[in-house]
Amino acid sequence: VRLEDLTTPALVVEAELLEHNLATMARALPGERLRPHVKAHKCKELALRQAAHGHVGFTCATTVEVAGLVRAGLGDDLLLANEVLDVERLRRLARSRARVTVAVDSDETVAAAAAAGITEVVVDVNVGLPRCGCAPGTAGRVAEAARARGMAVRGVMGYEGHVVGLEDRARRVELVGVSMEMLRQAHANVGGELISAGGTGTYDINPWATEIQAGSYALMDSAYGRLSLPFHQALTVLATVVSVSPSWAVADCGAKALGMDHGNPTIEGAEVWFCSDEHVTFAPRDAVRVGDRIRVIPAHVDPTVAYHERMYVAEGDDVLETWPVDLRGW
Ligand SMILES: Cc1ncc(COP(=O)(O)O)c(C=O)c1O
To answer: Which pLDDT tens digit goes with each residue over 124-150?
Structure first.
């Protein structure tokens, strides 16, 4: 199969660039120093590649991601880094033969994990991103509640999501220190061997975490592309030019094929004007014709991937493999 045979829009992964990203990260954060977040690609095959680079513990955002990795034989050490109250879904994970650790931040999430038969948890701490996580000062109490119900507390996690995307590196360095001081305080009252934090934008400036939860580094997006990281843009959306007007052109890759929460996608050699449901309107520097194929670079990789059923791994114009995006859904 060749790229020209694909129906568009289609996710295309450059095999060589993916390999570069995985190898670069494995050199920087070998083995247990990285717990790759699979939400960035939702693909078992890609997780198997990460495991081949020595990263065998994974971070997950959903129970579907955890269950999929278990089925792929990647159940050595999975962290569900999210609050889940659905006892039934947690019970299925608890019954699997995998090692599954679940994030908790309240009496309710502790109770759900205990009722499901989960045996290991981490205390999720709010380190500045207004999302999940208890206040650092209450982490010790959440840990006690978990231990009182017979669960082992492996440590803390605290995702500095408000810091990872800042373009100014000095500011990132400063703010990750502030966040990790909060996590350190929480850890002092919680104990355990894990301090899990970090993302692609802080992978090399967070020495306080025992493990980094980066995921976007594997495929990358244009938001992270602005941070001068050593990872290359391995994923693009292949699109077809479907209409050409005197000053702009339109391709079949709109908001239903792209995560748009980080803004418009980019197209090399063109200025993107806007996206509508099924279209991207752009002004190309050099003339394009109806039927031309173009590459669209998403601003945010995670939601982009989640819109697609499969990704095509390519070398030049040849499609080497087709990988299902099989960890989608909830
Ligand atoms: C809990 C958690 N950890 C880590 C990450 C890091 O991911 P990325 O590699 O995109 O920075 C995310 C991303 O949103 C996250 O939600």
So the answer is: 999 999 999 999 999 999 999 999 999
Angle of helix 87-95 versus helix 63-71 axis, rounded to 10: 20
Residue with tokens 């109490």: 141
pLDDT, one tens digit per residue, over 40-51 is: 999 999 999 999
Rounded CA gap, 167 and 171, in Å? 8
Pair 252, 9: CB distance under 8 Å: yes
Give the Cα separation of 274 and 264 in Å (integer): 7
Whether pTM exceeds 0.85: yes
pLDDT of residue 135: 98
Beta strands in 193-232 (DSSP E): 194-197, 211-212
Is any atom of ligand 1 closer than 6 Å to the C-beta of 215?
yes
Q: Which of 124, 157, 164, 305 to mutate to test the pocket of ligand 1 (most atoms within 8 A of CB)?
A: 164
**Other CB atoms within 10 Å distance of the CB of residue 155:** 21
Residue 92's identity, in one-letter code, is R
* Residue 152 contacts residue 120 (beta carbons within 8 Å): yes
